[in-house]
Amino acid sequence: MEKRNQSFVTEFILLGLTNSHEQEIILFGVFLVIYLITLMGNMIIILTISLFSCFNSPMYFFLRNLSFLDICFTSTTVPKMLVNFLLQVKTISFAGCVAQLYSFISLGGVECLLLAVMAYDRYVAICKPLHYTSIMNRRACILLATASWVLACLNSLAHTVFTFRLPFCGSNQINHFFCDIPPMLELACADTHINELVVYSSGGSVILGSFLFTLLSYIYIISAIIKIRSSQGRLKAFSTCASHLTVVSMFFGTIIFTYLRPTSTYSLDQDRVIPVLYGIVTPMLNPIIYSLRNKDMHGALKRMIGQKN
């Protein structure tokens, strides 16, 4: 299906993750399970934190935000992908493509910034415990969360505008399972250097800035942990930090690899698998890593189950 002018483009075709229908059926089952686990895990976190007053602290305020964000983030791509696994022709309207790209980039940006804010919260709690309540007061928490959403949405707006102002006059087949910046630039039949500059400057500021801030916070946290006299306390703290850093590294590492490298090195056949890690797997792991391993959360869940019984 070929289009001569951008004004006549009414839909795109998503090629998905594989060309094999048998593999698509298997992937449908795998991603359905992952999506249900993501929804259930994050909804449990939101419900538990909302019901129990003992979770009325900045850490749990940000965790609830992260859980809500992860539900939205994974829902921008997975439901459409699941439906497409069962269809022969996987189409998405032009407007739907615009909405999906904007939502995915904005929610991904919020996740970057929120992970940085959460790392800062842990830094203040561990390195400046006496000033924690005054620094991370309710007003500061709301401002940090709001700023994360506003900055990420503005960043995504810039990417979306610059991407869809390009003319698409060749094939309308997107070599991906959703509308993302790299495959859209590949389809454009115009010079994309300005778009690349926007990605490197605007997107790079959000992604790299958040990553470096998160990394710096954890360096200070780990240096404080080393000073703990109890070996059992050090081991417990290191275990928590290691699990957090594993998820953070996987999330930021795959995003940086996707967006902050020269377009000449793109291999869309391979790169379409990478967003599965930061866009689908990480939202499933976040509630496990950040909340469900928490003893207070375990206790609250047991109380909830006990009350129901």
Draw up the topology in text.
Blueprint: E1 11-14, H1 21-51, H2 58-75, H3 78-85, E2 91-93, H4 94-127, H5 132-135, H6 138-164, E3 173-174, H7 181-187, H8 193-226, H9 231-259, H10 268-271, H11 275-292, H12 295-308
Write down the secondary-structure element order: EHHHEHHHEHHHHHH
Report the structural category: mainly alpha
CATH homologous superfamily classification: Rhodopsin 7-helix transmembrane proteins
Distance between the termini: 58 Å
Descriptive account of the structure:
With 309 residues, this protein is mainly alpha-helical. The protein has a single domain, classed as Rhodopsin 7-helix transmembrane proteins (Rhopdopsin 7-helix transmembrane proteins, Up-down Bundle), CATH 1.20.1070.10. Helix content is 74%, strand content 3%. A three-stranded mixed β-sheet has the order 2-1-3.
Offer a few descriptive terms.
309 residues, mainly alpha, Rhopdopsin 7-helix transmembrane proteins, 3-stranded mixed beta sheet, 3 strands, globular, disordered N terminus
Brief overview, please?
The protein has 309 residues and is mainly alpha-helical.
